[in-house]
Write a structure and sequence with these properties.
alpha/beta, Arc Repressor Mutant, subunit A, Dna Topoisomerase Vi A Subunit, Chain: A, domain 2, 2 domains, six-stranded mixed β-sheet, three-stranded antiparallel β-sheet, about 45% helix, about 15% strand
């Protein structure tokens, strides 16, 4: 993250505090204006190809019985984030909860009763100031791994993603703070399963095909999604998403490409509309003779697939409609590990190279 952007975040936090202080000095009812995060205010921007928040907002007032506690909590979180940035340190959202948790005066009222109370307030500050949680120096557990011919600078350390042995680089939530010093790749391959990542990493797929290999470990974290977007937008690298042939895998691709309802307020910074789906598909099951490696779809899988059919970005694409309907019709699904039915190296030596060569992607 650039120094200018860092200073701007601190300035936005300061402006919030000064605004509230000025309203108190004027004997006005202090308030914080927050964009509404309800489904009714989430729209799909066709031009951008991603989910985003609409323009509906609500004001949170101090002198309002229904608002006063959350108003107090909002200022506590904002002040905590300001102190983190002033000291140039980071804290986990769990640390923040415990740091701010206390009983108010002689009452029986706590600032926060549980972390489920403090986490949504962080998001409120995010949307109110139009910043990322990570820019507030609030972090979450690392999730996601990456390997490739890339050198980054991270808090003063130079890290070479091509020389980290079998483990790869563990993706932090503070991806916006890293600087790229060298990126030598033709594309990014995002693998839903860590097992798939391990298989491809051991075979040095990223080296043979000159790509950056990312394992998300299921639903990708915000840090992983931000990393994918940065590699795409800053280095113009195509992004191919490799997921299971089931409704959950299809949804993971959807989240990477278009964002999610819960994080619609940051889609412009963590979604990658140019991402394409490289498989596994239901059609691939028959094309590559994987029928004996399929799993019977559960009722919940079929229900979720039917919901996906109505997602605007799936509904407008005949190829996606075909694949999702095929899953419903056949009542089957398959994991990417099913490719091992044809041999352990089949995934990296045949399936993915075929897909890349023939540009066999779903958009």
């Amino acid at each position: 993250m650039t120094e200018t952007r860092q200073k701007n975040v601190s300035k936005e936090l300061e402006k919030l505090g000064l605004k509230v202080a000025a309203e108190i000095d004027k004997k006005e009812n202090p308030n914080i204006e927050i964009p509404i995060r309800a489904l009714s205010n989430v729209i799909f921007d066709k031009k951008l190809g991603q989910l985003t928040l609409g323009d509906k907002t609500a004001k949170r007032y101090f002198f309002n019985v229904a608002h006063s506690k959350k108003f107090m909590q909002s200022l506590l979180v904002a002040a905590f984030a300001k102190s983190l940035r002033d000291e140039n340190i980071h804290a986990s959202i769990r640390d923040m909860y415990y740091n701010l948790k206390r009983t108010i005066g002689d009452s029986n009222e706590n600032t926060f009763d549980a972390q489920v109370d403090s986490d949504p307030i962080i998001v409120d500050i995010e949307v109110a100031l139009d910043v990322l949680r990570e820019q507030l120096h609030l972090t979450t557990d690392r999730k996601g791994i990456v390997a490739g011919n890339v050198i980054i600078q991270d808090r003063g350390d130079s890290i070479d993603w091509s020389k980290l042995g079998s483990g790869g680089w563990s993706i932090p939530s503070t991806v916006e703070e890293i600087d790229f010093k060298k990126v030598d790749a033709k594309f990014v391959l995002v693998c839903e399963k860590n097992a798939g990542f391990e298989r491809l990493h051991e075979d040095k797929f990223w080296q043979k095909h000159k790509c950056i290999l990312i394992g998300t470990g299921g639903q990708p974290s915000r840090g992983t999604r931000l990393l994918i977007q940065r590699l795409n937008s800053e280095f113009n690298l195509p992004v191919y998403v490799f997921c299971d042939a089931d409704s959950y895998g299809f949804y993971i691709y959807s989240v990477i490409k278009s964002g999610s309802i819960s994080l619609a307020h940051v889609s412009d910074r963590i979604a990658t509309p140019e991402a394409k789906f490289i498989g596994l598909t239901i059609s691939d099951i028959f094309k590559y003779d994987l029928k004996k490696a399929t799993i019977k779809a559960r009722e919940v899988d079929i229900k979720r697939a039917k919901e996906l059919l109505n997602y605007e970005w799936f509904a407008k694409n005949p190829k996606w409609q075909k694949e999702i309907n095929l899953m419903i019709e056949k009542g089957i699904k398959a994991e990417i590990e099913a490719l091992s039915h044809q041999g352990l190296r089949f995934m990296g030596e045949t399936y993915l190279p075929d897909k890349l060569k023939n540009k066999d992607f779903l958009d």
